[in-house]
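Design request, tokens follow.
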């Protein structure tokens, strides 16, 4: 069996409507019943990146922090009891994107993240900001269960790279307009464990510094203002 890696045809564009960047201008949409049932069963909450999440494990073992003792971004509050000199050995969450919340905007973590697919299809876009050179390499791949066509059921993103994700229909070529036409559920294990201290978002202006003008225009919808 030959396994091929599919390449995106043309620019990276959304299959589902892009949510308003200013949430005050958009009334919250109720998810379709099958998706709402998953959110409730897994006790999921809206994620600031987009989509929904639920933390399922935080290893009680502490390890010395391998990271700088200054926060990646001043924009986040730190959890109560957090000590920047240590990290939990690992943390794990469920992460879900849906037709009503169909993308996770570009963000970066200092730690590596192991992703495991449970259900659905999506596309991930990585900007290798940790690599040398003024303009950074951009990588994209589809996550899903059709491994014969190159879809990935498991993938690892090393620390220092920006990643974004967006929902694809369950079946390639299907109309993305249906409310319950696809949803992507994964697990993410961060090693050492996740802290907002190690997390930052990519803004539109920051995107323009990392990639050329054409690529920045193509990926603009996945970056924050």
């Amino acid at each position: 069996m030959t396994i091929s890696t599919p390449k995106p045809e043309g620019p990276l564009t959304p299959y589902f409507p892009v949510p308003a960047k200013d949430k005050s201008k958009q009334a919250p949409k109720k998810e379709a019943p099958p998706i709402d049932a998953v959110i409730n069963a897994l006790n999921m909450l809206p994620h600031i990146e987009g989509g929904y999440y639920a933390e399922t494990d935080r290893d009680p073992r502490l390890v010395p922090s391998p990271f700088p003792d200054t926060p990646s971004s001043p924009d986040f509050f730190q959890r109560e009891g957090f000590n920047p000199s240590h990290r939990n050995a690992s943390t794990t969450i469920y992460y879900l994107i849906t037709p009503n919340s169909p993308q996770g905007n570009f963000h970066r973590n200092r730690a590596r993240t192991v992703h495991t697919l449970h259900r659905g299809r999506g596309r991930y876009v990585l900007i290798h900001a940790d690599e040398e050179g003024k303009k950074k390499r951009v990588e994209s791949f589809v996550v899903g269960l059709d491994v014969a066509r190159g879809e990935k059921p498991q993938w690892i993103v090393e620390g220092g790279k920006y990643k974004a994700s967006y929902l694809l229909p369950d079946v390639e070529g299907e109309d993305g307009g249906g409310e319950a036409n696809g949803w992507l559920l994964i697990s993410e294990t961060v090693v050492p464990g996740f802290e907002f201290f190690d997390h930052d978002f990519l803004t539109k202006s920051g995107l323009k510094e990392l990639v050329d003008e054409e690529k920045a225009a193509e990926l603009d919808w996945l970056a924050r203002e």
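Comment from the thread starter after seeing the answer: thanks! The first strand starts at residue 45 and ends at 46.
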